[in-house]
Amino acid sequence: MAATLAAETHDSREASHWDRRQVTWFVVAIALFTIYPFVDRALGINRLGSWLPIFVTIILAMGLNIVVGYAGLLDLGYAAFFAIGAYTNAILTSPRSGLVQNGYIPEFLQHFWPAMAISWVVAAIFGVFLGAPTLRLRGDYLAIVTLGFGEIVPNVVVNTPAVTGGPLGLNPISAPPPIPLPGGYDIRFGASNQIAWYFLMFAVGLFSLFLINRLHDSRLGRSWMAVREDEIAAASMGINLVKTKLLAFALGASFSGFAGSVYAAAFQYVNPSQFEFTVSISVLSMVILGGLGNIYGVIFGGLIIASFDRILAEELNGPMHWLGRQTDIAFLEKHDLNSDRLLVFGLALVVMMLVRPGGLFPNARREAELTEESEEVTVRQDQQLYDIRHENEPAVGERA
Amino acid sequence: MEFNGTLFVQYLIIGIATGALIALIALGYTLVYGIIELINFAHGEVMMMGAFFSISLIALSGVSADSAGAAIIGMLLLTLVLAMAFSALLNFAIDRIAYKPLRNAPRLAPLIAAIGMSFILQNIGIYWQGSNPVRPPSIIPLEYRSYNILNEWFALDTTIRFRLLDLFVLVTTIPLLIGLTWFVYRTRIGTAMRATAQDREAAALMGIDVNRTIGTAFLLGGGLAGAAGLIALYYNDNGWYRMGFRYGLFAFTAAVLGGIGNLTGAVVGSLCIGLIWSMSDGFMKQYVSGWGAQWTPSVIFGVLVLVMVFRPSGLLGEQTVDKV
Prior knowledge:
The structure holds 2 protein chains of 2 kinds.
Chain A: H1 2-8, H2 20-43, H3 48-70, H4 78-93, H5 98-101, H6 112-134, H7 139-159, H8 161-164, E1 179-180, E2 186-187, H9 194-217, H10 219-229, H11 231-236, H12 241-267, H13 277-290, H14 295-327, H15 330-334, H16 341-355, H17 364-370, H18 374-386
Antiparallel strand pairs in A: 1-2
Helix pairs in contact in A: 1-9, 2-9, 3-9, 3-12, 3-13, 3-14, 4-6, 4-7, 4-12, 6-12, 9-10, 9-12, 10-12, 13-14, 13-16, 17-18
Chain B: H1 5-36, H2 43-61, H3 69-99, H4 108-129, H5 142-145, H6 149-152, H7 164-186, H8 188-198, H9 200-205, H10 210-236, H11 243-258, H12 263-283, H13 296-310
Helix pairs in contact in B: 1-7, 1-10, 1-11, 1-12, 2-3, 2-4, 2-10, 2-11, 3-10, 7-8, 7-10, 8-10, 11-12, 11-13, 12-13
């Protein structure tokens, strides 16, 4: 689906809009992430395990960006799809799962790769299932319904132990088979081999980034943005609102299916408490911090918040306690930064809304909508876009 | 299965008390939504802060279950008043800091800010009382905790329990509800609030100070939430930084069920949710095996989703038309 849509419109203007500096940044980022695991091992940093959940949350943020950033539908229950992805994988492949034990799952499906593909589809189906009845709701009502859905899913998971293992969760979960390399080496996905998992997640992340970029530039992607900016105008231009919004929900959800199944496999364990409301909001705060609708901004926002959550809070505790002892400030000495997670998510949301509603790296179009007097801005931009007169001549409506 | 009347009445009592408690919170949602169409997501946390304030205040005062009866009752009344004032000011401050600058922004901007405020307050709650549930300081003497009014006062020979705590909820809640109704329908500023809810611009043109009116709505809602915090604290005999989230969402469901923006609706919706809550917690298990409190969140959020999807205007609300 995504491939055909992307192929249809690969001449889109924005796709080729990268200047040299952006390409350099992108290449540098890829290179850094590629050499990091080896540096980590060589220097004995031992932080690879923390990068796995960071990658997962970034994939989640990219997926949520489709729903909130591109299509403008505020989804407060995104963790539910993450849970559905993770549990689909677990239920299909874990020897503890009731369905596997009773022989309902054919043998060839009880492996990582088929399970991952199915998780992707199942999450998308749930996206449609949730989206279909809620699409006619106004923005804030839609947000609350998705929140309700996000609360129901973990609750049902806890209460159906026969299928999901209940509050105890399910483990182990099937890992990908070894990938043979030339020269007799294998890449093995064991609990001890975190480099393999790191690159698997990195690859899934890049693959998602590629797909989402193609979607953004496709006809569907442009319809999302049209719907986000003005539903009525979009409908009168012939965009099918129901189909467009449903696809936003489904495709947005599908990426969390990816993230969920990889997450479940990497940690060999799923448990309902991993998919609480806090997860939905932490992912939302990444999208908002980075910049709604700008995928690179979202990735950056995800890096900041997730690395605070998983690495920085622990690493900074030591220096802060030291500073507290030096300066005799009891607060600095005793305080545990790990207990500030909710504050960080909350501040990201409030401060960004008040100071920079477009995020750190605003999407130009999206920003125009979130600020006051947006009408004027868009009108002026459009006039410049379609102005065919000589460049030096001031456009109508532009102030001298 | 035979209908168990005694059990039904028992859960009816619990349901009504719970519903009254939820109504205090739901009114805060409805007051604010009625005027500025904002789902004040941090409202549940305002209630939690009211509860935490009460814990600290009572612990500080040194009044305990061993003190004289008059001291206990006086302290509870004082805590009620101060917790209401604290939560009212907190709610007002939240509005000034986080929502007021976004008054003319798109609808989702203040909602996102409200979600952020809710998380900030939860974290403050963790700093204040830790991340585990705490028991409130003991102030109600032991013999009154399970004091059954039906046995003791009316000398009825029944196993149905109508505890002093249930009465405590009702005698606190009902006067507050009457007071609010009086305020909104009988005072000048209440009239201004209703006018602003109907049409903000027209109200401003008539000389109503819209900002003051909005501030009043936040003060009123916060005050009721503070009272709810104190009541919930002793009704459940526990306080937690997450108590506001759960109560807040259930109360929001109640406000939507009754028709958001409608004061009577909020109370009716709250009683419905309170009854659904208590019946699902205790009464349903004799009809459906395996049913119990663990399913209650799903049931109530299911109600929320169904109402939102099929009747977004609620039971008593008017059909609102989306403006182009």
